[in-house]
Amino acid sequence: MRFPRYAPRLALLLVVLTGCAAATGGESPEAPGQPAVGDEPTRTPTSRLPSSEPLDPSRTWVVLLGTGTPGAEPDRFGPSTAVVAGGTAYLIDAGPGVVRRASAGAMVTGLQALNAPNLRVAFLTHLHSDHTLGYPDLILSPWVLGRAAPLAVYGPPGLEAMTAALLEAYREDIRVRVEGPERLRRDLLAVETHEIAPGLIYEDPVMRVEAFAVPHGTWDVAFGFKLTTADRTIVISGDTGPFDGLAEIAAGADVLIHEAYGAEGLRQREPETQRYHGTFHTSAIKVGEIAARAGVGMVILHHQLHLAGGTPEEMVEEVRLSFDGEVIYGRDLDAF
Ligand SMILES: [Zn+2]
Ligand SMILES: [Zn+2]
User: What distance in Å separates the CA atoms of residue 9 and residue 21, rounded to the nearest whole number?
Assistant: First the structure.
Protein backbone atom coordinates (compact mmCIF):
# COMPACT_ATOMS: atom_id res chain seq x y z
CA MET A 1 0.00 0.00 0.00
CA ARG A 2 1.24 3.48 -0.83
CA PHE A 3 0.50 6.78 0.75
CA PRO A 4 0.53 10.19 -0.80
CA ARG A 5 3.87 11.82 -0.62
CA TYR A 6 4.08 14.61 1.89
CA ALA A 7 6.99 16.80 0.99
CA PRO A 8 7.19 20.05 2.91
CA ARG A 9 8.16 22.90 0.69
CA LEU A 10 11.47 24.64 1.23
CA ALA A 11 9.56 27.82 2.02
CA LEU A 12 7.88 26.08 4.93
CA LEU A 13 11.21 24.87 6.24
CA LEU A 14 12.64 28.35 5.94
CA VAL A 15 9.73 29.70 7.96
CA VAL A 16 10.42 27.12 10.65
CA LEU A 17 14.16 27.75 10.67
CA THR A 18 13.81 31.53 10.54
CA GLY A 19 11.33 31.36 13.38
CA CYS A 20 13.76 29.35 15.48
CA ALA A 21 16.58 31.82 14.74
CA ALA A 22 14.40 34.72 15.77
CA ALA A 23 13.58 33.00 19.04
CA THR A 24 17.23 33.01 20.06
CA GLY A 25 17.46 36.75 19.80
CA GLY A 26 19.77 36.45 16.84
CA GLU A 27 20.84 40.01 16.14
CA SER A 28 23.98 40.13 18.27
CA PRO A 29 26.44 37.66 19.69
CA GLU A 30 26.35 36.87 23.37
CA ALA A 31 27.43 39.63 25.71
CA PRO A 32 30.73 38.96 27.46
CA GLY A 33 30.32 37.07 30.69
CA GLN A 34 26.99 35.54 29.77
CA PRO A 35 26.73 31.77 29.96
CA ALA A 36 27.18 29.96 26.68
CA VAL A 37 24.00 29.13 24.91
CA GLY A 38 23.28 25.42 25.17
CA ASP A 39 24.03 24.72 28.81
CA GLU A 40 20.35 24.70 29.66
CA PRO A 41 17.53 23.01 27.82
CA THR A 42 15.11 25.28 26.07
CA ARG A 43 11.66 24.29 24.98
CA THR A 44 10.47 25.62 21.67
CA PRO A 45 6.84 26.69 21.89
CA THR A 46 4.60 24.24 20.07
CA SER A 47 2.81 27.22 18.51
CA ARG A 48 5.51 27.00 15.82
CA LEU A 49 3.68 24.07 14.29
CA PRO A 50 2.92 24.98 10.70
CA SER A 51 -0.70 25.18 9.72
CA SER A 52 -0.44 22.35 7.19
CA GLU A 53 -2.53 19.30 7.90
CA PRO A 54 -0.75 16.96 10.35
CA LEU A 55 -0.14 13.44 9.10
CA ASP A 56 -2.50 10.67 10.16
CA PRO A 57 -0.70 9.03 13.11
CA SER A 58 -2.62 5.79 12.66
CA ARG A 59 -0.59 5.05 9.52
CA THR A 60 3.06 4.11 9.16
CA TRP A 61 5.22 6.97 7.91
CA VAL A 62 8.78 7.32 6.69
CA VAL A 63 10.34 10.66 7.63
CA LEU A 64 13.77 11.42 6.21
CA LEU A 65 15.56 13.20 9.03
CA GLY A 66 18.93 13.40 7.31
CA THR A 67 19.80 12.32 3.78
CA GLY A 68 23.43 13.41 3.78
CA THR A 69 26.85 11.82 3.66
CA PRO A 70 30.11 12.80 5.39
CA GLY A 71 29.99 15.90 3.17
CA ALA A 72 29.12 19.01 5.19
CA GLU A 73 26.17 20.04 3.07
CA PRO A 74 24.15 22.59 5.02
CA ASP A 75 20.77 21.41 3.78
CA ARG A 76 21.42 17.69 4.18
CA PHE A 77 22.04 16.51 7.72
CA GLY A 78 23.72 13.25 8.64
CA PRO A 79 22.07 9.98 7.70
CA SER A 80 19.02 9.23 9.81
CA THR A 81 15.58 7.95 8.94
CA ALA A 82 12.51 7.64 11.13
CA VAL A 83 9.78 5.10 10.61
CA VAL A 84 6.88 6.28 12.72
CA ALA A 85 4.12 3.84 13.66
CA GLY A 86 1.76 3.36 16.57
CA GLY A 87 3.01 6.48 18.32
CA THR A 88 6.66 5.43 18.29
CA ALA A 89 9.53 6.74 16.17
CA TYR A 90 11.87 3.93 15.17
CA LEU A 91 15.12 5.63 14.17
CA ILE A 92 17.56 4.13 11.72
CA ASP A 93 21.03 5.63 12.18
CA ALA A 94 21.99 8.75 14.09
CA GLY A 95 23.92 11.13 11.89
CA PRO A 96 24.90 14.64 12.95
CA GLY A 97 21.92 16.73 14.02
CA VAL A 98 19.56 13.80 14.50
CA VAL A 99 17.69 15.15 17.51
CA ARG A 100 17.13 18.62 16.03
CA ARG A 101 16.10 17.08 12.71
CA ALA A 102 13.60 14.84 14.54
CA SER A 103 12.25 17.92 16.28
CA ALA A 104 11.88 19.65 12.92
CA GLY A 105 10.18 16.51 11.63
CA ALA A 106 7.67 16.71 14.46
CA MET A 107 6.95 20.32 13.53
CA VAL A 108 6.37 19.73 9.85
CA THR A 109 4.47 16.44 10.13
CA GLY A 110 2.67 16.81 13.45
CA LEU A 111 3.92 13.36 14.47
CA GLN A 112 4.55 13.81 18.17
CA ALA A 113 6.61 10.62 18.34
CA LEU A 114 9.45 12.64 16.79
CA ASN A 115 9.69 15.10 19.66
CA ALA A 116 12.99 14.76 21.48
CA PRO A 117 11.76 13.25 24.78
CA ASN A 118 9.92 10.56 22.80
CA LEU A 119 13.00 9.22 20.97
CA ARG A 120 13.52 5.85 22.63
CA VAL A 121 14.40 3.25 19.99
CA ALA A 122 17.18 3.29 17.42
CA PHE A 123 18.82 0.86 15.02
CA LEU A 124 22.33 1.50 13.74
CA THR A 125 23.26 0.03 10.37
CA HIS A 126 26.98 0.32 11.08
CA LEU A 127 29.36 2.44 13.10
CA HIS A 128 30.76 4.75 10.41
CA SER A 129 31.06 8.24 11.89
CA ASP A 130 28.59 9.86 9.50
CA HIS A 131 25.94 7.47 10.87
CA THR A 132 26.86 7.78 14.54
CA LEU A 133 28.07 11.32 15.21
CA GLY A 134 24.53 12.04 16.40
CA TYR A 135 24.57 9.05 18.75
CA PRO A 136 25.78 10.98 21.82
CA ASP A 137 23.16 13.60 20.94
CA LEU A 138 20.51 10.86 20.90
CA ILE A 139 21.73 9.47 24.22
CA LEU A 140 22.02 12.78 26.05
CA SER A 141 19.71 15.44 24.61
CA PRO A 142 16.36 13.63 25.01
CA TRP A 143 17.45 12.67 28.54
CA VAL A 144 18.11 16.32 29.35
CA LEU A 145 14.76 17.20 27.78
CA GLY A 146 12.79 14.72 29.85
CA ARG A 147 12.85 11.30 28.23
CA ALA A 148 11.03 9.04 30.69
CA ALA A 149 12.65 5.73 29.74
CA PRO A 150 16.12 4.49 28.81
CA LEU A 151 17.13 4.53 25.15
CA ALA A 152 17.20 1.12 23.46
CA VAL A 153 19.73 0.76 20.65
CA TYR A 154 20.33 -2.15 18.27
CA GLY A 155 23.47 -2.31 16.20
CA PRO A 156 26.60 -4.19 15.16
CA PRO A 157 29.35 -5.53 17.41
CA GLY A 158 31.26 -2.57 18.79
CA LEU A 159 28.06 -0.81 19.82
CA GLU A 160 28.54 -1.57 23.51
CA ALA A 161 32.11 -0.29 23.53
CA MET A 162 31.13 2.87 21.66
CA THR A 163 28.24 3.50 24.06
CA ALA A 164 30.41 3.01 27.13
CA ALA A 165 33.08 5.30 25.70
CA LEU A 166 30.55 8.05 24.97
CA LEU A 167 29.08 7.87 28.46
CA GLU A 168 32.60 8.07 29.84
CA ALA A 169 33.45 11.02 27.60
CA TYR A 170 30.48 12.94 28.99
CA ARG A 171 31.03 11.83 32.57
CA GLU A 172 31.37 15.34 33.98
CA ASP A 173 28.29 16.62 32.15
CA ILE A 174 26.31 13.67 33.47
CA ARG A 175 27.60 14.16 37.01
CA VAL A 176 26.65 17.84 37.03
CA ARG A 177 23.20 17.15 35.67
CA VAL A 178 22.55 14.32 38.13
CA GLU A 179 24.11 15.84 41.27
CA GLY A 180 23.49 19.51 40.49
CA PRO A 181 20.22 21.43 40.63
CA GLU A 182 18.76 19.68 37.58
CA ARG A 183 18.61 16.43 39.56
CA LEU A 184 18.23 14.31 36.43
CA ARG A 185 17.79 10.59 36.98
CA ARG A 186 20.91 8.63 36.16
CA ASP A 187 18.89 5.43 35.65
CA LEU A 188 17.08 7.03 32.71
CA LEU A 189 20.41 7.60 30.98
CA ALA A 190 21.26 3.91 30.97
CA VAL A 191 21.41 2.78 27.35
CA GLU A 192 20.02 -0.65 26.58
CA THR A 193 22.44 -1.84 23.92
CA HIS A 194 21.81 -4.91 21.79
CA GLU A 195 24.61 -6.16 19.56
CA ILE A 196 22.78 -7.93 16.79
CA ALA A 197 23.25 -10.63 14.16
CA PRO A 198 21.20 -11.12 10.99
CA GLY A 199 17.61 -12.22 11.60
CA LEU A 200 14.70 -10.96 13.66
CA ILE A 201 16.16 -8.42 16.06
CA TYR A 202 13.16 -6.53 17.38
CA GLU A 203 9.45 -7.08 17.80
CA ASP A 204 6.71 -5.23 19.60
CA PRO A 205 2.95 -5.18 18.97
CA VAL A 206 3.40 -2.58 16.22
CA MET A 207 6.78 -3.19 14.65
CA ARG A 208 8.92 -6.08 13.52
CA VAL A 209 12.52 -5.45 12.49
CA GLU A 210 14.78 -7.89 10.70
CA ALA A 211 18.47 -7.24 10.08
CA PHE A 212 20.43 -8.49 7.09
CA ALA A 213 24.14 -8.27 6.41
CA VAL A 214 25.32 -6.03 3.58
CA PRO A 215 28.77 -5.70 1.98
CA HIS A 216 30.17 -2.31 2.88
CA GLY A 217 33.77 -2.35 1.70
CA THR A 218 36.20 -3.28 4.45
CA TRP A 219 33.69 -3.13 7.28
CA ASP A 220 33.44 -6.52 9.00
CA VAL A 221 29.79 -6.00 9.83
CA ALA A 222 27.20 -3.69 8.33
CA PHE A 223 23.45 -4.16 8.24
CA GLY A 224 20.35 -3.19 6.36
CA PHE A 225 16.93 -3.45 7.97
CA LYS A 226 13.47 -4.61 6.98
CA LEU A 227 10.71 -3.01 9.03
CA THR A 228 7.22 -4.46 8.93
CA THR A 229 4.03 -2.98 10.38
CA ALA A 230 0.36 -3.82 9.81
CA ASP A 231 0.18 -1.52 6.81
CA ARG A 232 3.65 -1.26 5.30
CA THR A 233 6.94 -3.03 4.65
CA ILE A 234 9.98 -0.77 4.43
CA VAL A 235 13.48 -1.89 3.55
CA ILE A 236 16.47 0.33 4.17
CA SER A 237 19.74 -0.67 2.56
CA GLY A 238 22.15 0.95 4.97
CA ASP A 239 25.49 1.77 3.39
CA THR A 240 26.22 -1.03 1.00
CA GLY A 241 28.20 -1.98 -2.03
CA PRO A 242 26.28 -3.59 -4.86
CA PHE A 243 24.22 -6.31 -3.18
CA ASP A 244 22.13 -8.56 -5.42
CA GLY A 245 20.74 -10.45 -2.42
CA LEU A 246 18.73 -7.37 -1.56
CA ALA A 247 16.32 -8.11 -4.40
CA GLU A 248 15.11 -11.21 -2.57
CA ILE A 249 15.06 -9.56 0.86
CA ALA A 250 13.08 -6.58 -0.43
CA ALA A 251 10.74 -8.62 -2.64
CA GLY A 252 7.33 -6.99 -2.64
CA ALA A 253 8.24 -4.27 -0.13
CA ASP A 254 6.22 -1.06 -0.28
CA VAL A 255 9.28 1.14 0.08
CA LEU A 256 12.97 0.61 -0.63
CA ILE A 257 15.19 3.32 0.84
CA HIS A 258 18.59 2.93 -0.78
CA GLU A 259 21.87 4.79 -0.78
CA ALA A 260 23.25 5.69 -4.22
CA TYR A 261 25.94 7.42 -6.17
CA GLY A 262 25.61 8.73 -9.68
CA ALA A 263 27.25 6.16 -11.97
CA GLU A 264 28.21 8.73 -14.57
CA GLY A 265 29.87 10.89 -11.91
CA LEU A 266 32.00 8.00 -10.67
CA ARG A 267 33.22 7.22 -14.18
CA GLN A 268 34.78 10.68 -14.29
CA ARG A 269 36.82 10.13 -11.13
CA GLU A 270 40.29 8.71 -10.58
CA PRO A 271 40.73 4.91 -10.34
CA GLU A 272 41.25 4.84 -6.54
CA THR A 273 37.98 6.71 -5.99
CA GLN A 274 36.23 4.34 -8.37
CA ARG A 275 37.60 1.36 -6.47
CA TYR A 276 36.52 2.77 -3.09
CA HIS A 277 33.01 3.71 -4.04
CA GLY A 278 32.56 0.64 -6.20
CA THR A 279 32.90 -1.60 -3.14
CA PHE A 280 31.53 0.66 -0.36
CA HIS A 281 28.53 2.05 -2.21
CA THR A 282 26.00 1.33 -4.95
CA SER A 283 25.35 3.11 -8.23
CA ALA A 284 21.90 4.46 -8.97
CA ILE A 285 21.82 2.17 -12.01
CA LYS A 286 22.32 -0.86 -9.75
CA VAL A 287 19.65 0.41 -7.33
CA GLY A 288 17.22 0.44 -10.25
CA GLU A 289 18.10 -3.13 -11.20
CA ILE A 290 17.62 -4.35 -7.63
CA ALA A 291 14.34 -2.47 -7.22
CA ALA A 292 13.00 -3.89 -10.48
CA ARG A 293 13.89 -7.44 -9.51
CA ALA A 294 12.38 -6.97 -6.05
CA GLY A 295 9.20 -5.40 -7.45
CA VAL A 296 9.07 -2.76 -4.72
CA GLY A 297 6.37 -0.12 -4.65
CA MET A 298 8.68 2.85 -4.61
CA VAL A 299 12.35 3.75 -4.30
CA ILE A 300 13.60 6.57 -2.12
CA LEU A 301 17.21 7.57 -2.64
CA HIS A 302 19.15 8.92 0.32
CA HIS A 303 22.83 9.24 1.26
CA GLN A 304 23.26 10.41 -2.34
CA LEU A 305 26.84 10.83 -3.51
CA HIS A 306 27.44 13.18 -6.41
CA LEU A 307 31.05 12.36 -7.11
CA ALA A 308 31.59 14.62 -10.10
CA GLY A 309 28.62 16.92 -10.23
CA GLY A 310 25.52 15.44 -11.78
CA THR A 311 22.00 16.49 -10.93
CA PRO A 312 19.34 14.83 -8.80
CA GLU A 313 17.31 14.35 -11.97
CA GLU A 314 20.19 12.48 -13.61
CA MET A 315 20.52 10.20 -10.60
CA VAL A 316 16.80 9.44 -10.65
CA GLU A 317 17.02 8.73 -14.38
CA GLU A 318 19.77 6.18 -13.72
CA VAL A 319 17.39 4.31 -11.39
CA ARG A 320 14.67 4.51 -14.01
CA LEU A 321 16.80 2.76 -16.60
CA SER A 322 15.56 -0.49 -15.03
CA PHE A 323 12.81 0.44 -12.59
CA ASP A 324 9.53 1.90 -13.79
CA GLY A 325 7.92 2.54 -10.40
CA GLU A 326 8.03 5.75 -8.39
CA VAL A 327 11.54 7.05 -7.68
CA ILE A 328 12.11 9.82 -5.17
CA TYR A 329 15.29 11.82 -4.70
CA GLY A 330 15.02 12.05 -0.93
CA ARG A 331 15.49 15.35 0.83
CA ASP A 332 15.64 16.11 4.53
CA LEU A 333 12.23 16.26 6.20
CA ASP A 334 10.36 14.68 3.32
CA ALA A 335 7.73 12.27 4.60
CA PHE A 336 6.09 9.41 2.77
ZN1 LIG B 1 27.55 6.67 5.21
ZN1 LIG C 1 29.32 3.72 5.79
Answer: 19
